[in-house]
Amino acid sequence: MNAPFPRPGLLDIAAYQPGESTIPGKDRVIKIASNESPLGASPKVSEAVKGGLNKLHLYPEGPATQLRQALATAYGIEAERIQCSNGSEEMLHMLARSYAGPGDEVIYSQYGFLAYPIAIQIAGATAVVVPEKNLHADIDAILAAVTPKTKIVFLANPNNPTGTYLPDAEIRRLHAGLPKGVLLALDEAYAEYATAPDYTSGLELARSADNVVVSRTFSKIYGLAAVRVGWSYCPQNVIDVLIRVRCSFNVNALAQIAACAALADNAHTEAARAHNTLWLPKVSAALAAIGIPVVPSQGNFILAEFKDAADARAADAHLRSDGIIIRPVAGYGLPGYLRITIGTAEENEALISSLTAYKKA
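^ Histidinol-phosphate aminotransferase, sequence as received from the core. Prediction below:
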């Protein structure tokens, strides 16, 4: 019997595999695999969400006007140039579907977020993967890969899973070298954690350019991964497209309430940033001291380097035996590395203790 068959190419897509949350036989686990905030959401979020529970029969406010205004105030940008999304990943898909299709090419860096090729393939476009240099995006290589078929360049800054970043001068050099008809999509999911003195958000560049989009998320420093809220700052010509292709009511009402409450609690956000600023170098130094080099990171995670793929797998197995879940990154082409989220003080100490025991075994 014949069955419906999907559009050509869809079954060739490798589905995204999220980080694990459980370990068989372990009642209590430490999950430091998905770059979630160890401080969780602001206490003000749960209070605000409770106030919206008596309106679950009503559709959410489609344009997310209140949230966009709150974002405009918090980041000093124009509300009319903000588009909210169901997590920042939805924005990747909207951009790919809107600006690329069969016969087009979309560029991303070798160790970029795995959602990029998925969004590109779903759109029917061709993914062009550009090699990195020392785990950093290579601007010259990206520019060399541009052809008349190029429609979008996806670039995470800071990058996941490496934690590396490009300074403002390099981002501007990339933009200056791109044809005006190529969209530069800057994924800044971890921007709030970045402390490097030469790191600058692309928001200012996007303010003056017709082909730059900056996407952000509430899943990381704001601790709202469960409710799925993202947002992007776009030129008006891109906004005009996005409001036509986004799903109706794509950000649910409770998510909008939660995001507004999170934005309003600056003290909680600063505490999350301070916690990461304290523990990121402490965990990095502790692992380096036991012979596990760490890639310098501007995110809320580290990329730990092992001797080879077998060593990384053995370390992962040892951590799991201690009830600790981290993220193997062989799927990114980095089989000799493990990505580790900065957790609570207790979780970080447990991680260091477990890996110390592993190295001594």
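The mean pLDDT is 96.
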